[in-house]
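Entry 14. Structure prediction run on the chain below.
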Amino acid sequence: QLQLVESGGGLVRPVGSLRLFCVASGSIDSVYAIGWFRQAPGGRRESVAGINSDGHRDYAASVKGRFTISRDSTKNTVDLQMNDLKPEDTAIYYCRGDGMGWGRGTQVTVSS
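Output returned:
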């Protein structure tokens, strides 16, 4: 069963950058859409960005212009480049593909 593992989180100051990594245990070619999601303390899990196998991307309004999702089928990875980070971006970030379960996520904390 294909699994996705997130990494790359950490503590960063406001306006800083982080790159999150989502590595699959096998080929992602059969997974049409893979997305990044986040859940802030006390909040609901929300979609951040998604990319499908055609290369189409979509973003939450709150991150558009700051975050970029990318997909590499040769490495079986889906990364999330996050720039100009704000304290409200603090959350646990998860990647998930169509019909797949949730992983453990990676913590992102934006604080001065």
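The mean pLDDT is 96.
Filed with the rest of this week's runs.
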